[in-house]
Amino acid sequence: xxxxxxxxxxxxxxxxxxxxxxxxxxxxxxxxxxxxxxxxxxxxxxxxxxxxxxxxxxxxxxxxxxxxxxxxxxxxxxxxxxxxxxxxxxxxxxxxxxxxxxxxxxxxxxxxxxxxxxxxxxxxxxxxxxxxxxxxxxxxxxxxxxxxxxxxxxxxxxxxxxxxxxxxxxxxxxxxxxxxxxxxxxxxxxxxxxxxxxxx
Length: 200
Fold this sequence. Notes:
By secondary structure, this protein is an alpha+beta fold. It has a single domain, classed as Alpha-Beta Plaits (2-Layer Sandwich), CATH 3.30.70.1560. It contains 3 helices and 10 strands. It has helices spanning 43-50, 70-78, 129-136, and strands spanning 24-25, 34-40, 58-65, 81-82, 85-86, 91-95, 115-122, 141-149, 152-153, 196-199. A hairpin with an 8-residue loop joins strand 1 (24-25) and strand 2. It is globular and about 50 Å long.
């Protein structure tokens, strides 16, 4: 679904899942990506999360085509030159295939070409950055799941799940002090595979 509340092309949007008023995404995922989305009703917090000046790290599980060699991983770590400039240094490592929900539609499968999962952490938000970074080092992204934004983690949440938290808006969101959870909203009753998980 679209990581917004309206869409002129009649695609599914957050309006299907988020029924609380005045909550808006703090950063987005593109239509083909999955995972953690933060929504907030606090404009200051929304700005702090989305503003690249705060360098809030975002971690992704990335399934790529082929198996990256050490030089490709080193290039991702140093920074990759894209059309809109050099990316900032990233953290990257090879990981075992994570246990996640099935993707709908499924990722294309090529029997003759292996694939590999990476854990990739970036601190900026260029358009479709992770996909462009992996393509630039010769390993196109097949599947992309965001699992962390600063101190917020996807954990065991599934597509359609929502979690409500009250947080203190500090100067350093990476050292955020969370307030006790005030209310846990029930899981969405019409659970679907694939799509974005909502964390509000």
